[in-house]
């Protein structure tokens, strides 16, 4: 082979690859080395040149002159290639494009000695002065370049330096490119396309840590996916933080939704009014179904299960206990008389699929049933030991706190007293037992509605929680009540609004040192108006006292979440602001208002500085100490100062004293059956005043039944009675006789000492009724202040 003959590209590629592999094995891809060796083994010219050249000399490693140069200069300025077959001494020059300076390889003359027959061809590397890359750099980028070409991308735009090098390279980069393209084509199905969906990018960002590996992602999709993910995480974090803050500092009261119970009506077990405890409610519903099916054993077991439920949220099982006691009375075979016990469950209709929050309503108002049941159970337990002794049977009457409900109950009682058609009203009473009395139908606005109906029916009304003084004026000054059917009477042995207002005024002046007072009252409510009027009268009777402001809060059209009327919050706060700006500034506020309105005033006063907080005194028949106790945790959560709060009530829980067994029996039964686990059953707030008053009212009827009848009294009571009037049943007094016996009673009750008297023929009141003053402590307990 002549020396002036150009080397074929394949031969030149094989020679250069093997030469670089000897210098730096790691810099040359294995595919290129394998291709060069295959070419050297199959090419006759290369075999002949390799056999003539003998053992190869070890070359020094190429040293790059500087990092800025893309093609390093070979040591000594040229690369030696053994080619003994080239005998010509003329220089060998490779064809170059016009833009690149020519590089002329120079052939060294043959040396002496053992190297005389060997000629060395030195090929100068191409110049990199124009910013081109060398073959070594090109081969590092060739895999990516080949994949881009196979994917149909614009390689001239993505890899311009590789594209320029391939146009001028004649040392084998094109052959290596073909190899890489074949490999890219074979691996095409294993390559991933770039992810362009932002939502898929979000998924890969969240789950890529667990998958491992790299995923090609479009830059725009990566940007939008990351932005959306950051916004979502920020929103979720803010939502969870707000919920956590609300759960920690603004925890709502313990409420629950249960199927709506029955509304207005009478019940001795078939209708369910109390749904405070969900489990007990379901047991009572199932017991009612069992009684309708005639399965009394199952009904008694279910009612016992409802009574045994332990509740720490304020609910009680008095309704279930009364239904169970009535069931035992019906099965005992003893004669029994009926007391209709009225209470207020709040608005509601019988809708098993519906639901409403009943917790606050029942926790406060069913305590009246606790006192009624304890008195009934104590009396019946003793009477069942005597054959044929009369028993007491309680029929619950739900008014839902509305005048319409109270009037419907009164008409039902009048019809039952005249006709005895108990089955028509859904009652399980057999025969025609007498209706002894009606208990409840309070507050005073409901009592005013039902008085004419009961007056015509001749049924006595025991209304100890109806403390409005205007009821007494109505009965004593209206001619209608001079002609009532014999047996009607209004019996109240508790302190009225006048007595409570006087006790509150004296305590505010003497004990609290109040001299300037602001009064809040509801002019649409007679009891609230009379309480405010009497407090102003008794307070100003003291020296150096003044009523500095009188604000009104009308509870008419607005209802709270439980269907209870309330005054406008804005009107109350505006009135409080005006009262506090009065001169001189009031040091006490007297508020005979509903519990919701009182809580609004108390919360507003708690937000004032402690030295500017007036004392809050609550009065009238609206006081619910258990509702006021909820103010304490609210004040603590908001880090406020609890104002001084006092309340005048008709009665409060006091330790039993004296020789009377009734208070001891009452509290013993209460602690056994109804006291919450882990709580004191003798505190001032353990029972509402309604429970104490209802307990004493049923005890009055029980004491009247125990009195022995005089000879001939039964015969006289039935003479002269017209058709439709109630007659005495064997062992039971007539309503008129019952009123006479009650009016002469004197005993120590759980609500206080009771000494009754009858006046104006229809009024029975106590001469020793004494109200109590309660104080809310900083720890949430309620103590008797006076």
Quick structural overview:
The chain is of the alpha/beta class and 786 residues long. It is 43% helix and 13% strand.
Query: Helicity, in percent?
Result: 40-55%
Q: Characterize the quaternary organization of these chains.
A: single chain
Total beta strands:
21
- Tally of individual helices: 27
User: Based on helices, strands and strand pairing, what is the structural class?
Assistant: alpha/beta
User: Main β-sheet, in a few words?
Assistant: 9 strands, mixed
Would you tell me the overall average pLDDT? 78
- Spatial sequence of strands, sheet with the most strands: 5-8-6-9-10-11-19-18-17
Shape descriptor reads elongated
Which range does the strand content fall in?
A: 5-15%
Rg measurement, Å: 52 Å
Ends: how far apart? 133 Å
Any low-confidence stretches, pLDDT <50, length ≥5?
Answer: 1-5, 56-129, 254-258, 348-364, 708-728
